[in-house]
Design a protein that fits this description.
about 5% strand, two-stranded antiparallel sheet, 7 helices
């Protein structure tokens, strides 16, 4: 019976583990909410699950590290972070699609990677890093998107290369029946 009891012992308290995983869910969900609002392929649930899984791996890395220290071993928790980065990058790459000479889904892929970093920071107990990463990520996803739509793209129409790129994009949108030029700011969902 004692061996079974030992399996449920952790170095962190259950409250601390729950807080780390909960913060990962909250912050990963904030990034996912932005992607969900814009009807992107990886939305709220995907970002929450990536952040939660990354946080779980980070908590597990800490537990394994402390177990190894207790047993006199030489632990290497960085390997777990490397595995998380690789796995999350694989998921992000899966959202990137190349069709008709253009690449779609780069921002969604990057936001999945961001959710992994938020989860790893939360899971390792670095809440301030997780919060700053979430805030800065949302600034990029929301405000820089508006900057692109309101300033950069209108200015690019003035150059020959920009006009040709916009013409190719217009033809693609007509062929697929979409119009991505419309802004969704501040909180206007696509119809």
């Amino acid at each position: 019976m004692e061996a079974l009891y030992d399996k449920f012992q952790t170095h962190l308290t259950l409250t601390e583990i729950a807080a780390r995983l909960g913060i990962a869910i909250l912050f990963g969900g904030l990034v996912g909410l932005n992607r969900e609002w814009l009807h992107k392929p990886a939305g709220l649930r995907t970002h929450i699950l990536v952040a939660l899984a990354s946080a779980t791996f980070a908590v597990l890395a800490r537990e394994l590290f402390l177990d190894a220290v207790d047993e006199g071993g030489r632990p290497d928790p960085v390997r777990v972070v490397e595995a998380v980065v690789t796995g999350v990058a694989f998921l992000g790459a899966g959202t990137i699609i190349q069709q008709s000479g253009s690449v779609e889904g780069m921002t969604t892929g990057a936001s999945i990677w961001l959710a992994g970093a938020i989860g790893a920071a939360s899971g390792s107990g670095h809440y301030v890093v997780a919060a700053m990463c979430t805030i800065m990520g949302l600034v990029v996803l929301i405000l820089v998107n508006e900057l692109e739509h309101r300033v950069i793209r209108p200015l690019s129409k003035r150059t020959p290369g920009g006009r040709h790129a916009l013409e190719r994009k217009r033809r693609r949108e007509e062929a697929h029946g979409t119009d991505s030029a419309k802004s969704n700011f501040p909180l206007k969902p696509k119809k």
